[in-house]
Write a structure and sequence with these properties.
Strand content: 5-15%
Order of helices and strands: EHHEHHEEHHH
Oligomer: single chain
Structural class: alpha+beta
Number of domains: 1
CATH topology: Glutaredoxin
Helix content: 40-55%
CATH architecture: 3-Layer(aba) Sandwich
Number of strands: 4
Largest sheet: 4 strands, mixed
Number of helices: 7
Strand order of the largest sheet: 2-1-3-4
């Protein structure tokens, strides 16, 4: 996905390309992310595997964000990082960092992430053929 000419690339949002929910959901946000300087890519792409140098079980455990300078976020931190940069999502970011609610946000993310393959199967959201 090419960025808009006036937008400086900041990095990539990296998702599990073998997960049906992830492969449906993340690409729907590609234009919103592109306006903030982020492209999207599956974690399974060769350049991602090479750049992150993580064992597959760690690599695919969470959604990840990689900035041009090498900074990484993972899991719920990716959502916080992105929400902080979208003006209309700022209220959600604020809720996600409030004491007490931050633990709820983290637990909700972890529960979803740990069950995303089951959710994809149950909801009959197939992973794209690779």
């Amino acid at each position: 996905m090419a960025l808009l000419p006036s937008v400086r690339r900041r990095g990539w949002v990296l998702y599990d390309g073998d997960c049906g929910v992830c492969s449906e959901w993340v690409p729907r946000w590609k234009d919103v992310l592109a306006r903030r300087g982020f492209a999207i890519a599956p974690l399974q792409e060769a350049w991602v595997v090479e750049r992150l140098k993580l064992p597959e079980t760690d690599l695919l455990r969470d959604i990840r964000l990689l900035t041009l300078d090498g900074h990484q976020e993972q899991g719920a931190g990716v959502y916080r990082y992105v929400m902080r940069r979208i003006w209309w999502a700022t209220p959600f970011w604020l809720l996600s960092v409030l004491p007490g609610l931050n633990a709820v946000f983290d637990a909700a993310y972890r529960t979803f992430a740990d069950n995303r393959q089951w959710i994809s199967h149950t909801c009959r959201i197939p992973a794209p053929s690779r």
